[in-house]
Amino acid sequence: MPDEPDAGDSPPLPDQPPGRRRGGGPTPHDSVFRRVFGVPANAASQLRAVLPPDLAGRLDLGRLAPVPGSFVDEALKWRHSDVLFTAPLDGRGAFVYVLVEHQSSDDPLMAFRVLRYITRVWDQYEREHPRARRLPAVIPLVVYQGPGRWASPVQLLDVIDLGPGGRQAVQSWLPRFEFLLDDLTRAGEDQMLARELTPAALVTLLLLKTARGNPQVTADLRRWAGHLRAVLDSPGGSEAFIVLLTYIELVSDAPVGELRDLAALLGPRTQRRRM
Predict the structure, then answer these.
(1) In a domain, 161, yes or no
(2) More confident residue, 269 or 176
C-alpha cells in the first residue's frame, strides 16, 4: 500500500459564490467537503455511521490515512468531490473512496463513473507497486446532498441497456459492481443528530443537506449552537469553524446581519473567528 501521506494543504475556499461552476477552481461544496472530510477523524466517524456494521468492524478506521489527489474527471469536478483513504481491512491493505455528489439532481451513470474512478485508483496502485499480483479492495461511498431523493441505479448492471432475457444471458460476463449510498435527503435532522459523528463532520453534513439557497439557515444554526461550539472546542476547530462559516456565507441566502447576530450568540471567541 502507499505510504501514509501528509494531509497537505487543502484548496482554498473561492472568494465569490460560484454556485455550480463548471471549471475554474473548487466550488464551495467541494472545498468544505475536502477540508472537513480530508481529516481522518471526521471521515472515520462518517464511515462508522453509514457503512454496514460488519464491514465497518473489519476496517481499522483508527488507522485511516488520506491519499492526496483526486480521481474525478476534470469536466465533472463542478459536481463531484472525492477523498481517498487507506485503511487495513482484516489486516490487509485496502482503500476507502468517498465521493460527494452535489448537483441538484442525481446522476444516472454514477455507478459507471464510480467504477471508472476505482480503476484509476488501481492504475495508480499498479504504477506504485509494479510487482503486485493482486489489487487492494476499494470500498466506494457516495454522499448525495441534492434537494430531491436519489433515484438512479447504484449497481452497474442496472445502467447497461439490456432486457430481462438479455441480462440473464450475459450477466455472468459483465462487471458486477455496486456503490454504497448515503442519501442525505432521506435522513431527517433527528437521524443526522443521532449519528456518532465528530462535531465538524456532523455540522458539515447538516449544512450540505440544508444550507444551499436557504434564507432561513440561521434558524437551523441556532438549534445547532451547541454543535457549533463543539466544533470550536475540538482539535483544529478554529480552522474548521472558519471553513463552515465561509461555506454558509457563500451558498446560503442568509442575511449578513443574522449571521453576525448568531456569532454574537455563540460568544466573543466566535465573533473573533468570524472577523
Answers:
(1) yes
(2) 176
